Amino acid sequence: MSHRPPQLIALALVLTLGLLVAPMSSPPVAASTDVTPVDLRVEDAQAPLGIDVAQPRLSWRLESRERGVRQSAYRIQVAGSEAALLAGDADVWDSGTVDSDASAHITYAGPDLEPATRYHWRVRILDAGGAPTEWSSPSWWETGLLDDADWQDAAWIGNPDSPRSPDADHPAAPRFRAEFEAQGPVEQARLYLSGLGYSVAHINGQRVGTAVLDPGQTDYSDTAFYVTHDVTGLVTEGANAIGVELGRGFYGISTDNAWNWNTSPWWSDPELRALLVITHPDGTTSTVASGGDWGTTLDGPTRYDEVFVGETYDARREQPGWSTPGYDGAARWDRAEASPGPDGELRARPHEPIRVTETIAPVEITEPEPGVFVFDLGVQIAGWARLNVDGDAGTEVSLRYGERLDDDGLVSIPQYDDFHTVPRAQTDIYTLGDREGPQTWEPSYTYKGFRYVEVRGLPSAPTTGTLQGRWTHNDFASIGHFDSGSDLLNTIRGNTRRALLNNHQHIPTDTPVYEKAGWTGDAQLTATTASYEFDMSRFHRKYLDDILDSQLPSGELPTIVPTSGWSYEGAPGWPAVHGPTPEWDIALFTLALNLYEMEGDVQVLERYYDAMKLYFSWVDARVDEDGLYPYGLGDWVAPGGDPPEGPVLSATAHVHLMAAQLTEIARILDQPEDEAFYQARAEQIGDDFNRAFLDEESGLYRTPGVEEYRQTSNILPLAFDLVPDEHVEAVADNLVADIRDRGDRLNTGVIGTRYLLPVLSHHGRTDVAYAVATQTEEPSWGYWIELGNTSLQEHWQADTRSLNHHFFGSIGHWMYADLAGITPATPGYATVRFKPYLPSDLDHAEARTRTVRGEVASSWRRDGADGLEMEVVVPPNSTGDVHVPLLGQGTGRVEAPSEAEFVEERDGYAVYTVGSGTWRFDVA
């Protein structure tokens, strides 16, 4: 085996992010004043409200119409007011001029920040020639409650009649209320709220905020979230009232389930902590804090809620005015009692909330049985339905949600009983109240995965206005675009996006129907695809912290995060995931490295480095006498069922990858002793791997005792740089031969599929990769579309359990990184590599994505058999490393801008270095 120094994720950054060539230096540029710092962010959010980071990190992008724009220095000013900032009075912090081209994750280095305080900031930069820009438009951030003392007298409270055991009868959703006087005009009001598991707050009868399923799922034994709300417009001088209703979420699941959520160490009935701070024009403040003086009741209309079941809502029990002052039913409410609250640290929610992002009208309504109506939304979504109905009080309407229909045209949820013991699956029940006119209702504390809603009990024949789908997911920005000459690829990409969104519900889940679990393998397999499509920065950091919370002192990691304790060694449950599962556990490494590569964030490596080392020590202690790691799930859901080779080859390859990753991270963090240690382990594991699995005579990898050729067994060594140089061509040729023999079909599970298409493209077989990607016979993404699917399936075969998974969505990475050719050549896109791989049967492709330095774009279009038009966009403060496909032509046939610096001809490409701007190249 060749023992060249490992690249930063072997393939997860060699294939995944294309680190194949050293970055080029940018040409000198003239000073430019046509440069503006824009998109100011704090902790990766625009104007965040209520962050609790002691030293927040500041970022910006540059905007310019000129080419070759570079930043040579920056200066940041922070002030206590916008007026002071605009006057040049940086009374909080002035960084001074800092010689640096960094524009992301600059750590605030001023005095300690005060809680519940707004800070205003701006930035200016010096361009390459030393000319300063104008100051950016001012922005701000506002701190939340920085430690427990800042909560003042706000206590955790609960309802005294709530049961204290998951075995007790499931009670109604508790409500809490308090009335208060605002003594004088209101200049500002902030509500700091943690309602666990989920909460909906009202002030003076108006709902607070637009988020749903707040504040977010965590391992509540270690971490719980609160949210800061600007309620200035809701609080008035004089009499006011606040009301909060709580749902159970994952905090208090009471039904039996495969993952033991009902025996979680944090299990509790819903609890509330709230602090309302009102600021008056004279600068004085008054507060309203949750405590024993708040009223509470279990007599509200939400009679039942459970995330795997649904909700029961009785509109006859509504309490009009319950969150307004002077509510006449308040005397019948009990007093709230102090409750212990979660054991975990209470932190400001760091990631985007879940919101209703789209309301979808049904495309068809059928009546498979008299009085039973099925609404078809036309697409798979996660969320719930909004019901609009008019009828007599007491009329009960049930809504059953599912991804498919049975032969009778009714909603079917196969295999649900294999995982849950529930009174009903994915079903809401609404009982009409006695108010006049149409009634509109939607659930608040559960979400479902579905395309179809089966409705029973409607008092009259429905119309398309009777029910709409409400699509919910974490509301992160969409930053990606991909389009090509293949309608099939474009549809696959759209289905991939939908699958990703449906499965991002505070954690990256595996299915919104059956499990709603944060399988780490799913997360790591689609991390880069998601990062091209969406702004995942805050979400992935949050999930990495979830992984950190789940790690045991021994270093062990569970396969679902958060976990109730399920999948640790010795815990009850499915034995296949007890102990090491390297292809899943590597999520800790992959997500951190992805953030580093995409954003240039060294601190993310520093934060998780010790946890990576601890895990590696734990798994490495379990090596067998042959130097192998026979653990885990292997190439999960490969065609035909469990793969015959078992997990040992895949697991060992991934432990080698971890060692290679730790080698590179140690180098980045200047830890030479660690670097040498992990380098030696990577080499030894590689030698043991090849000794066990490489058939040198045949030029392929196989597990002893398994005669069948296994594609994944050969994909992973190619992807992870494990194949000795003299065998690379033979291993690649054998892989291609097997694919061709199968009629251009893959034979891989989720692990092999992640790397299959990049491996083929990077070994000169893009036509084969394209043939596999556009296959329409089983197994393939196109086959799913032939079946009528609008998301991604769990299994390749038609009779799969779930139609709403995302772990096969790794194909999206290949579209962006290889077909369009966009990868960060250096971390944070300081240098952008444009290197498209062109299938002969595709006439054009284009993609763009927003990076920490601005938008990056690439497009190419064939011009006849041998011609090509290629255009790239390099953001300001970046350099472009442009590889123009020669299509068999010489470099003399390339028409390039005069400012583009020709470097060399390499592997069928003409390579150029360019500065920022838009650049077009033509191959005549």
Automatic annotation (TrEMBL):
- Looking at the record, the residues that make up the Alpha-L-rhamnosidase concanavalin-like domain are 369-470
Q: Which residues form the Alpha-L-rhamnosidase six-hairpin glycosidase domain?
A: 479-818
**Class in the EC hierarchy, top level:** hydrolase
Which EC numbers does the record give?
3.2.1.40
InterPro entries reported in the protein's UniProt record: 6-hairpin_glycosidase_sf, 6hp_glycosidase-like_sf, Alpha_rhamnosid, Bac_rhamnosid6H, Bac_rhamnosid_C, Bac_rhamnosid_N, Ig-like_fold, Rhamnosid_concanavalin
Q: Which UniProt keywords apply?
A: Hydrolase, Signal
Catalyzed chemical reaction(s): Hydrolysis of terminal non-reducing alpha-L-rhamnose residues in alpha-L-rhamnosides
User: Residue ranges of region Disordered?
Assistant: 319-348
Tell me where on the tree of life, at the top rank, the source sits: Bacteria
Residue ranges occupied by any Alpha-L-rhamnosidase C-terminal domain in the UniProt entry = 821-889
Signal sequence region: 1-30
Q: Which SUPFAM superfamilies match?
A: Six-hairpin glycosidases
Residue ranges of domain Bacterial alpha-L-rhamnosidase N-terminal in the record: 186-358
Molecular function terms, GO-annotated: hydrolase activity
Name the UniProt record assigns to this protein? alpha-L-rhamnosidase
Source organism lineage? Bacteria, Bacillati, Actinomycetota, Actinomycetes, Streptosporangiales
